[in-house]
Design brief:
eight-stranded mixed sheet; binds iron/sulfur cluster; TIM Barrel; alpha/beta; about 350 residues; 22 strands; about 25% helix; about 25% strand
């Protein structure tokens, strides 16, 4: 059990410097960093919200969303409090932004062993760290992920990808699958609208950090899917979304990209994303990416097809998933086979 605070270094005058994310908060004694999670007590780094679980639910893995990792399975999903970004359309603002109206976020204290027991009790072979931002809870993640691996439980991260290289590498080394947000393709938007301000003169951009996080996860053999919420007046230009596509394709054309339609929430009042625009972007992206999915809109456009014979591998309707087009991987293989042609699919067990 680790418990001790990590990535929090003592500086002069009782200041603690947090190296977990590019904000690199300088935290005075008696205060918390910008995420509201990591702090300074009498000149010592502390993580007072270690094991503070704000939500616990058994979800279809498609809800994360992950479409190419253990499809049709249920996953125990644990939520935390706090976040290092300030997205004005955050759908989980009551737990991610305690300082801006949420107050003390209700929850229950769970040690990593408690979460593992809950997963075993629910017969879930996976745990998702999700809902607000898990990365700012690095200590709990590292403890729980290590224990989960010991019990044969897979670790799934649902994240904004905003962590510096060293902690990112440690956490990703224990991560089996991740859905990573690419919220836009603009350093300015990340800094000025999404709250990714780097206020200490450090010139590392939050945007570049997120791009590096996605690249790093892919290079470490984590199963990666990327999500972009298409938000009117934020990122909804063809040019910007094309840039997201080009970036993903530059890593691997087979990375699934989830386009998601926005609905007004928290401080963002623009009307919901036009479904026709999502479909247009999906069609454009499909020329460069092999798997593009549209979330939060009606219609049956989210099936997965065999790259060899074009048979339907996975048929989806809402969160109902029919995987009869898949054949189980052979011994020693990581990927399902196509039930029709026998070819290897990009769907991972
Ligand atoms: S916002 Fe980032 S740098 Fe600041 S305390 Fe939280 S994780 Fe550390
Ligand atoms: S990164 Fe996610 S949890 Fe954090 S504010 Fe943005 S939408 Fe909310």
């Amino acid at each position: 059990m680790r418990r001790a605070a990590l990535f929090l270094e003592e500086e002069a005058d009782d200041i603690i410097r947090c190296g977990l994310c590019p904000r690199r908060c300088a935290i005075p004694s008696g205060s918390l960093g910008a995420c509201g999670v990591r702090g300074n007590k009498n000149g010592k780094g502390i993580v007072p919200l270690y094991g503070h679980i704000t939500a616990l639910a058994l979800d279809p893995i498609e809800k994360k969303p992950l479409f190419h990792f253990r499809p049709g399975s249920m996953i125990l999903s644990a939520g935390f409090a706090g976040c290092n970004l300030r997205c004005p359309f955050c759908q989980n603002w009551h737990i991610s932004q305690p300082a801006s109206g949420g107050g003390d976020v209700p929850g229950k204290h769970m040690l990593p062993g408690d979460l593992i027991s809950a997963a075993l009790h629910e017969d879930s072979s996976m745990i998702a760290y999700t809902y607000s931002e898990p990365l700012v809870h690095a200590e709990f993640l590292l403890d729980c992920m290590t224990l989960a691996r010991h019990h044969g439980i897979a670790n799934v991260l649902v994240t904004n990808g905003c962590a510096n290289a060293e902690p990112a590498r440690e956490i990703l080394s224990l991560t089996d699958a991740a859905n990573i947000d690419l919220k836009c393709f603009s350093a300015d938007t990340y800094a000025k609208i999404l709250g990714g301000v780097v206020s200490n003169g450090n010139d590392i951009s939050v945007f570049e950090t997120v791009l590096d996080f996605i690249r790093l996860a892919c290079s470490m053999d984590v199963h990666v899917e990327v999500t972009t919420l298409v938000v009117p007046d934020l990122n909804d230009t063809v040019e910007e979304l094309d840039s997201c596509v080009d970036f993903i394709a530059s890593i691997d054309k087979k990375i699934p990209w989830h386009l998601s339609a926005y609905h007004p929430d928290y401080h963002w009042n623009a009307p919901p994303t036009d479904p026709a625009f999502i479909k247009e972007i999906k069609n454009r992206a499909a020329k460069k990416l092999a798997f593009v999915y549209a979330g939060n809109i009606a219609g049956d456009g989210n099936n997965t097809f065999c790259p060899h014979c074009e048979a339907v591998l996975i048929r989806r309707r809402g969160y109902q998933t029919d995987i009869s087009g898949l054949a189980a991987p052979a011994d020693g293989e990581k990927f399902f086979r196509c039930a029709r042609c026998g070819g290897e699919t990009p769907v991972k067990w």
